[in-house]
Amino acid sequence: MKKERILLNIGAILGFIILLFIFNKTFDSYQMKILNLCGIYIVLGLSMNLINGFTGLFSLGHAGFMAVGAYTAGLLTMSPAMKEMNFFMKPIIPFLAKVEWPFLPALLMAGVVTAFVGFLIGSPVLKLKDDYLAIATLGFSEIIRVVFVNIQSVTNGALGLKGLPTHTNIWWSWGTAMITIVFMVFLMKSSYGRAFKAIREDEIAAEAMGISLFKHKVMSFTMGAFFAGVGGALLGNLLGTIDPNMFRFVLTFNILLIVVLGGIGSITGTTISAVIVTVAMEVLRVLDETINLGFVQIKGIPGMRMVIFSLLLMIVILFYQQGLLGTNEFSWDWFSKIKGFKKTPKKEVKQ
Amino acid sequence: MSILRADNITMRFGGLVAVSKFDMTLNEGEIVGLIGPNGAGKTTAFNMITGVYKPTEGSVFFQDDKRDIDITQSRPDEITKLGVARTFQNIRLFKELSVLDNVLIANHLRLKSDVFSAMLTLPNYRKEEKAMYEKSIHLLEEVGLKELMYEKSTSLPYGKQRRLEIARALATNPKVLLLDEPAAGMNPKESLELMDFIADIRERFKLTIFMIEHHMQVVMGICERIFVLDHGITIAQGTPSEIQNNEKVIEAYLGVD
To answer: B255 to chain A, minimum CA–CA distance in Å?
Structure first.
């Protein structure tokens, strides 16, 4: 039984890789960009779900973490000549002027630096709960942004960085997405994952059961920050241009939306909703333009897609208060259920 | 030999003295009761012992193989690690999780593997995980919940939820078990069953039990010694028969004209 599952999992991953190959060949650059964004938003959504959904810490600091990741990877991968062109207002600090790293170490470094920042922020802030924690993390996220505007010799201030090498392709973004998914699945299956869930369910009881709240909260927060940093780095090297104003609160809100829509505390839900939200945002662009129905012409209203999108969101939340999947996860049993297979009596010992 | 000792602990919330100079010693293997009218400070006393509140005065000691550890300033999880587990007056299970998960979580504190070997399921972790499962399932079998182990914990009937909470506390390998009103909301038949259950687990797990309880039948039935709190003050202590005839206790419970 177990072996069968593993084979199915490997098969699904291989199938998906082949699918990516086909997409890679057939999609135009606009579609490719959306596909890349899907992968990146999966990473970001999962990292937020780890903190908010699985450990129950209401954190809104994601944009800040992404900024740290994007800038770290950006500065490490940018060529020295490009840096000189960018930093015309104030020269870059010599320590960063000459470095040019390959993408993989830069990506990992982005994660590590962000995790460290997450650790520094988390240690004092995680003593707070609920909305207080949300406000504190939101504040820190804004502080990071404002600091980035002002340390001109490192970040080039409000001018941002232009001409980042666009390393990110679907292999990087979806590869990272898959690694993140596997990481989350294994983490949540382990005893540490259970401890995180226990903290979400009832902090007082979790502590009475001998779970050190501080240690586990900081652990979850730091891991979440790591992946947020990697996601930010992928995004920066996809777009090729970053500036501090990209990393406003709205960005955190977008990721929160993915998490809530997919189901707070569901890996599958976040993965699905990351794709849905990213694609929907682009598909609904049609609504902003003039629509010609033949007999009547509807004048485009800029921003209409956000209205429709918000409406759709409201409908989903009204009917599925737990998000699309609640806390459920994908399993191969879904298929046997759908097809009504009776030959797999996988009934657990139930009364 | 004493195992847990509270040395004149006092808890003040602003001007209110919730518990005043509570002095108690638990000897190994005893079942001791703590009774008193509503608002007498029983749960506050519990919270001070388990580290939820830090006493404003006095100290708490845990005694373990000739060590005498001051746990007054320790965190709840540290105290649980030493071997003092508790249940709650209003059941606090991990609601969305299964019965088995609830018990497995209580094993986490004894886990030695770090998070990375746990994620990669390295052999040392796999061994620990297997032992955890076996222990938890065995424990659930002993408390009669094995058939329900994949059910969501909140779907259990009330009495079984109480039982699960005790099982979860037992999974932390405690030496001392603190029960906060285990029979609350139970009918007389259930309370009697619970009484047998508590007596039974004391024998099997070699526990020292300290319990708050309102059901006099339960308290008088199994406790060897009883403390009586009223308005935060210990008004009496002694054997059940002594307590039953104590004038101050009768006064506190029934009032006096």
So the answer is: 36
Question: What φ, ψ does residue A175 adopt, rounded to 5°?
Answer: -60, -50
Residue A184: which of A269, A277, A261 has the closest Cα?
Answer: A269
Q: Tell me the per-residue pLDDT of B106-116, one tens digit each, with 9 for 90 and over.
A: 998 888 888 88
By the 8 A CB rule, do B64 and B31 touch? no
Please give the Cα distance from A29 to A46 (Å, whole number).
26
What integer pLDDT is reported at residue A45 of this predicted model?
Answer: 94
Least Cα distance to A156 among A236, A91, A99 occurs for A91
CB of B199 within 8 Å of a chain A CB? The answer is no
CATH architecture of residue range(s) A28-338: Orthogonal Bundle (1.10)
Residue A75's φ and ψ, nearest 5 degrees, are: -70, -30
Predicted confidence band of residue A249 (pLDDT cuts 50, 70, 90): confident
Nearest partner of A40 among A271, A282, A243, A257, judged by Cα: A271
Are B77 and A210 within 8 A, CB to CB? Answer: yes
Nearest CA in chain A to B50: A208
Nearest CA in chain B to A185: B119
Does residue B102 form part of some domain? Answer: no
- Cα distance from B18 to chain A (closest Cα, Å)? 21
Residue whose entry in the numeric block shows the structure tokens 């939340």: A317
A89-114: average pLDDT: 86
Q: Are strands B208-212 and B176-180 parallel, antiparallel or unpaired?
A: parallel
Chains A, B: CB contacts within 8 A come to 109
- Partner-chain contact A210 B149, CB within 8 Å: no
* Count of structural domains within chain B: 1
Enumerate the β-bridge partners of residue B63: B68
- A345 — pLDDT class (breaks 50, 70, 90): very low
B127 in a structural domain: no
CB distance B80–A209 less than 8 Å?
yes
* Domain boundaries, given as residue ranges, for chain A: 28-338
List chain B residues with CB under 8 Å of A209: 77, 80, 85, 105-106, 108-109, 168-169, 172
Confirm if B233 and B37 have CB atoms less than 8 A apart: no
- Picking from A151, A140, A167, A133, the residue whose alpha carbon sits closest to that of residue A58 is A133
What is the helix (H) or strand (E) element at residue B149, kind and residue range?
A: none
Instruction: List pLDDT tens digits, range B181-207.
Output: 888 888 888 888 888 888 888 888 889
Give the CATH number of the domain where residue B39 resides: 3.40.50.300
- What span, in angstroms and rounded, lies between the C-alpha atoms of A83 and A231? 22
**How many CB atoms are located within 10 Å of the residue B185 CB?**
12
State both tokens at A282: 């682009």
